[in-house]
Design a protein that fits this description.
Length: 171
């Protein structure tokens, strides 16, 4: 999410804009720990967002019940009372432990294998897949689908055949 403390203000502005359209829920990412995960969590909550890193949120949309869990809440939802179950995580490696946990959709924040894509083989992106087994944009296991964004920000601003993107999913 954030690369430095100076971006906490931008996070506040983003939450303010998004709240007008939908509930705002967030989980922490690897860069947030450098900023201070407690500070990021506090900024989310102070601006009426929900911090779901270690919890689950349930809401209704029309006649459907949707449950969204954070990465540290895998397996916390015991009985199936929802129509759609989503897991939000930062790192795609969550796929290994989540794909058989009853989720319909697993969302991962961004690729962690590489922002340089020479070619795709099967559903994996190379060369990232050589050293990172979860270098997918999407993957299916039974009824569970993984969707991974290419991301919107760069720590090292070098990209090739890996455009910045925000993924919009209709459930």
């Amino acid at each position: 999410m954030l690369n430095g403390r100076s971006e906490l203000g931008k996070l506040t502005e983003l939450i303010d804009c998004l709240r007008d359209f939908a509930p705002v829920m967030a989980v922490g990412g690897n860069h947030d720990y450098a900023v201070g995960i407690a500070q990021v969590s506090d900024a989310i909550k102070a601006n009426e967002g929900q911090w779901i890193h270690d919890s689950t949120a349930t809401f209704t949309h029309g006649d459907r019940t949707i449950t969204i869990s954070g990465p540290d809440a895998i397996g916390c939802v015991e009985s199936r009372v929802d129509d759609v179950r989503i897991l939000c995580a930062h790192n795609p490696r969550i796929w290994k432990n989540s794909r058989r946990q009853g989720y319909d959709l697993v969302l991962a924040g961004h690729l962690h294998g590489c922002q340089f894509v020479a070619f795709e083989f099967g559903d994996r992106l190379y060369p990232g897949a050589l050293f990172y087994p979860y270098c997918y944009l999407s993957h299916q296991c039974g009824t569970t689908k993984l969707v991974v964004s290419r991301g919107v920000s760069d720590l090292v601003p070098i990209r090739w055949r890996c455009p910045r993107e925000v993924v919009l999913c209709y459930v």
